[in-house]
Amino acid sequence: QVQLVESGGGSVQSGGSLRLSCAASGVTYSPYCMGWFRQVPGKARERVALIDNYAVTSYGNFVKGRFTISQDNGKNTLYLQMNSLNPEDTAMYYCAAGVGTDRLCTWKYWGRGTQVTVSS
Q1: Digit-coded pLDDT (tens) for 38-53
Q2: Residue 75 pLDDT > 80, yes or no?
Q3: How far is the C-alpha of 49 from the C-alpha of 11, rounded, in Å?
Q4: Contact 31, 100 (CB under 8 A)
Q5: How far apart are the C-alpha atoms of 33 and 72, rounded to whole Å?
């Protein structure tokens, strides 16, 4: 079965950085896509970043070059490097896995989330 476990969240000041990690197991099918989403209470979930089998990446429009998604360690770990954080980035961040590619990813699996809080 697919399991996703996030870590690396925390509290930082505006302008600071965080690196989120997602330990993934069971994602042995192809094609696959993996990514990060975020959500705050009472608001819709937002797609933050995506990476697929071909290492093609894409980002939400609000990222504006501040974040980078990557994989390593045999693709068993997904990362999200976040720089220049601002209070609007405060949210629960979720790791996700799906079927497909960057062109069309059907999300199927979700982690429990890790909280990111940015203070001004």
Answers
A1: 999 999 999 999 998 8
A2: no
A3: 21
A4: yes
A5: 14
